[in-house]
Design goal:
This protein is mainly beta. The protein has one helix spanning 65-72; strands at 17-23, 44-50, 53-61. It has a three-stranded antiparallel β-sheet with strand order 1-3-2, with helices on one face.
């Protein structure tokens, strides 16, 4: 886990957070498996429905490497 020593790498509970919406199911209807993030403390997820599609909204510290990888794609 990040140690929070740099403000851009802060992954503590005090870190600013951001979210990304991910598909909950693949094209064949199989559910994706989601695991808690081991790189940031504020990680949590919620299920949302947007335009009839079921999504998983993951919340991460904005400096979390996993979050940065998700928003790059």
């Amino acid at each position: 886990m990040a140690d929070g020593s740099g403000s851009d790498q802060d992954a503590t509970y005090r870190a600013p957070i951001g979210c990304v919406d991910l598909r909950a199911f693949d094209d064949e209807g199989n559910a994706y498996e989601f695991h808690a993030c081991h790189d940031c403390l504020p990680w949590h997820a919620e299920v949302v429905i947007i335009d009839g599609e079921i999504l998983v909204r993951e919340w991460h510290a904005v400096g979390c490497p996993q979050f940065e990888a998700l928003i790059e794609n």
